[in-house]
Amino acid sequence: MTTARETAAHPEDLARMFVERANAGDVEGVAALYEPDAVLAFPPGGQTVGRDAIRAVLERLLAPRPHFELEEPLPTVFNGDLALTSTRAADGTGGRAQVARRQRDGSWLRVLDRPEAG
Question: What are the pLDDT digits (tens) for 10-33?
Fold first, then answer.
């Protein structure tokens, strides 16, 4: 039996949902926050393209059950159905940035994600 997952009503919701799902070890739930052809700038220095490839990276990332904290958000920048969200990295390494797109149903998904500052 599958249960419906919360969708992001606002682009800023995606960071909270990422943290909640990652801390729960919900790889499928985290992958569901990305569009099918999204690009994740991870591992550092590389790019992972597509939700299936992102899911595989997340499986390895979340396997040891790391703990994530929600970081301080910076103001969101909008251009129509696109939104640039970002946070200040709690470890002082700079910031993290994501581009989200409004979907047909009004929810938001990540298109581009740069989780590491460097």
Answer: 999 999 999 999 999 999 999 999
